[in-house]
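Chain X:
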Amino acid sequence: MRDDIWEAEVGAEHAEWLATESRTARLAREYRPVDAGGGRIRYSYLALGAARELAPEEDGYLTDDGDGLRVWMGDEAFELEPTTS
């Protein structure tokens, strides 16, 4: 579980912002989301934990409910899926 990686297709602009400008981007490296290229954002187990601390009005906020694990940018939600990378 701690080695799990989650990715979402969020678009290049959102991926860059999440990795460089979001509140979690300012944390230690292991807690930051990573721009995986191609408009994808990648979260480690620790980065997911950090992002769960964001408030609902903040970009990069996560929800984990019956609709799945999603990262929010404004009013848009992007599905995070486990990956083997």
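Chain Y:
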Amino acid sequence: MAFSDIVNQVYIYTNRPDRVNETAAAVTAATLWAHHSDFYYKDLVEIPCVFEALAYLQQVPLSFFNQFRALKYIRKYYPGTGPNNPPSQDQSPNNLPPLYGMYYDPGANLPDGRFFKIITPDNVLDSYRINKIDVAYVAGQTIQLRSGDYFQYALCGYYSHPIATQNGYTSWVANEYPDLIAFRASEIVLKAIGFDESAQFYAQMAAELLAQMQFSNIVAEGE
């Protein structure tokens, strides 16, 4: 449903079409509230990262991702490789060996597809106080990657924010559960103008729809 359609629905629920700016702001806030109520697979985006050169350590600025909310996964991949065409371990300009003697035999245990473990910056060392390998963490506005073998390509999966403003409004919640956003926005508007009892009614309606949405959208595969 379009942003303007939800706004018009809120006007009907609140009977306050004069609250133009407040209603638009409430729809934006309600959209963000709905998407941020959990980590939904429908908010996942996967994009490839191609680095300038092969290296053990790589960095990805968060500005590389559109509407970045949170990191889900990062894995290595090698374009055009497979069991019969494994990636060469000698691609490095300096022919460096993998860290800690980790070498992948051609055709067996290929590094292609290996996932980085997402950790926190204070968990980069193992019990021997040595840097962990095949790990990724967010530090400030940058994702730091430390690999056991040099690599140049990665697939990054992240949760994105919706575009919740009128221009370019994009929300799967608005398409599938438009009343959830309209109920929540109506609650916000009514509470702001002092109609607490009516606001509570729409809050309850929004809570019930939110529970339905969470039940149906936590996993991608139904049973």
